[in-house]
Structure formats: structure tokens, C-alpha cells
Automatic annotation (TrEMBL):
<dbReference type="InterPro" id="IPR053145">
    <property type="entry name" value="AB_hydrolase_Est10"/>
</dbReference>
<dbReference type="Pfam" id="PF12146">
    <property type="entry name" value="Hydrolase_4"/>
</dbReference>
<dbReference type="InterPro" id="IPR029058">
    <property type="entry name" value="AB_hydrolase_fold"/>
</dbReference>
<protein>
    <submittedName>
        <fullName>Prolyl oligopeptidase family serine peptidase</fullName>
    </submittedName>
</protein>
<dbReference type="InterPro" id="IPR022742">
    <property type="entry name" value="Hydrolase_4"/>
</dbReference>
<feature type="domain" description="Serine aminopeptidase S33">
    <location>
        <begin position="40"/>
        <end position="165"/>
    </location>
</feature>
């Protein structure tokens, strides 16, 4: 399964942070990463990978750190300087089975603990941020680790993994898919197509229903890997049950919402993170 973000965004902002190379242990292996500490941190996040053989996301971390957000970004297990075995289609293994998604969420939880220990201010809220496949991993990690106080997800599916695969096989990489297909047609295939692969599925709605922390999702209407409108409907259902979930839909963007030519999605995510404590206090007062 593809579900990759192309990270080509380079920050030209002046450096307002320090960095520290770190190693931490998760499920018997040593993972390597970097902590970015702003001069005046207002929040903190761990960056969670998409589905590919992803090393630490330095460009992403620089953008966040230059905006007052402390960051831990690390090489995925089995990639770069991190030990362990990488699972993915490139090496003939299944990276979307629940066992692998759960393992990656345990890595994310260990990263949260590592970042928490590095912060001099223990009042800073720690969250998780990532895109695509991270949309399944982040809720799993947040459920495991109570240090996670918020989640921010770019183009994350609210449907099951098997349903997402049905959608992706149906769109078949056609960038003009939504010019020639209706929402009704897409949903018919999402819910009725036979599965090409058998594995233990993951339903993010069930996991999100257990969370009490705020979350923010960003979508592109032209996404051909994740059905944005269907995912938003599920978010609305969760919101109607009292979940503090927000979202924003960009009509002209596809799957790569985080690092497109449009900087607005990233700016929206950063502003939401930096104001999360204020918004929580506001809700409590009301």
C-alpha cells in the first residue's frame, strides 16, 4: 500500500532551536532520532511516519521547531540508524496488518516518553503529528500513552485499513478520478469490493471513540488514497458524541496535504497546536 507523503519542503527560516541526537528503546530494539528544542517551546510533538521506509523527518521538524514546537523525530524501526525489522511491500512483507501498526504505535509511545523526559517544562502539552498511515497509528499510540494530550493528522483515514485499500485499488492512481466519479460510486466500492489481501484489520473509529483528547484532521477533496468526505462524516459522528475533534477540508488538494505548494494546511496545524491549551481552557470556562 502506498500511503506516502513526499517531503520536499525545506525551511529557510533562521534557527531558533537546538538539536540533540538521541537513542531510545522500544519493544527490544534501539531507535535513533533527533530532538529539536525551540528557545521558547509552547508545545511538543512526536512525528509519526507514513507507510514507507522513512528516516527522521528533519525538514518537518525544522518547520515545527521554528514555530515554537519541540519535536522528536526518529528513524522508523529497521530504517536508517534504527534497529529492528522494517515491514513493508518493498521487502515483501505486510505493513498494514494490525500487528505491525500496533508495533509502530508502541514505538511512538516510547518516543513520547523520551520526549517527555527531555522537556525542562513539564507543563508543556505533548502530542502526536503525522500523515497518511499515521492516521491509524496515532490513535493506537494515544490510547496507550496518557502523556499524549492531542493529535494532529494529515489525510488520515477514518475507515478501516481494508476499506482504504478497496478505495485505493478503485481509484488506481488516477489523479483525475474525482472529475469522472461520484461520491456514491466511490462509497459503493469502499463497502462492497472483495478484499485482495487477508490480514487483521484496524478500525480507527473504535479507537478514537475511547479517546478524550482533542484532535485535528486536515484533508484534501481530491485525495485518491483516502476518501476525505467519508472520513469527515465519521468525524462528525464522533463529534456529535462529545469528542473534541476538528477538521479542515481543502477543495483543491490531494493526499499530500502537509507538504503541498499550499502552506495553509501546515500553518493551520501549527496554529491549532499552539492554541490547544487556550481552546481547552475556553471550553472549560464555558
Amino acid at each position: 500500500m502506498l500511503l506516502l507523503f513526499v517531503i520536499s519542503y525545506a525551511s529557510a527560516l533562521p534557527s531558533n532551536f537546538t538539536t540533540k541526537e538521541i537513542k531510545f528503546t522500544s519493544e527490544g530494539v534501539t531507535l535513533a532520532g533527533t530532538i529539536f528544542t525551540p528557545n521558547k517551546a509552547q508545545a511538543a510533538v512526536v512525528i509519526i511516519h507514513g507507510s514507507g521506509q522513512e528516516k527522521r523527518m528533519t525538514d518537518f521538524a525544522i518547520i515545527l521547531a521554528n514555530n515554537g514546537i519541540a519535536v522528536l523525530t526518529y528513524d522508523k524501526r529497521g530504517v536508517g540508524e534504527s534497529a529492528g525489522v522494517y515491514a513493508g511491500p518493498e521487502v515483501g512483507t505486510n505493513n498494514v496488518d494490525f500487528s505491525n501498526l500496533n508495533l509502530l504505535s508502541l514505538d511512538a509511545s516510547a518516543a513520547v516518553n523520551t520526549l517527555s523526559k527531555s522537556l525542562s517544562n513539564n507543563k508543556i502539552s505533548i502530542g502526536l503529528i503525522g500523515g497518511s498511515q499515521a492516521g491509524w497509528i496515532i490513535p493506537l499510540a494515544a490510547e496507550k500513552n496518557k502523556k499524549v494530550k492531542f493529535i494532529t493528522i494529515f489525510s488520515g483515514a477514518l475507515i478501516t485499513v481494508k476499506e482504504q485499500l478497496r478505495f485505493q485499488f478503485y481509484t488506481n492512481g488516477d489523479k483525475n478520478f474525482w472529475d469522472t466519479h461520484s461520491e456514491e460510486e466511490a462509497r459503493k466500492h469502499v463497502f462492497n469490493d472483495p478484499d485482495r489481501y487477508e490480514f487483521i484489520d484496524t478500525n480507527p473509529k473504535d479507537i478514537l471513540a475511547k479517546l478524550s483528547i482533542p484532535g485535528f484532521w486536515i484533508y484534501g477533496s481530491k485525495d485518491i488514497q483516502v476518501p476525505a468526505n467519508l472520513s469527515i462524516e465519521y468525524l462528525d459522528t464522533l463529534k456529535s458524541k462529545g469528542k473534541h475533534f476538528e477538521y479542515k477540508l481543502f477543495p483543491n488538494l490531494g493526499h499530500n496535504t502537509a507538504f503541498s505548494d499550499n502552506e495553509e494546511p501546515m500553518n493551520d496545524a501549527i496554529n491549532w497546536i499552539k492554541n490547544i491549551d487556550k481552546s481547552k481552557n475556553h471550553k472549560q470556562k464555558n
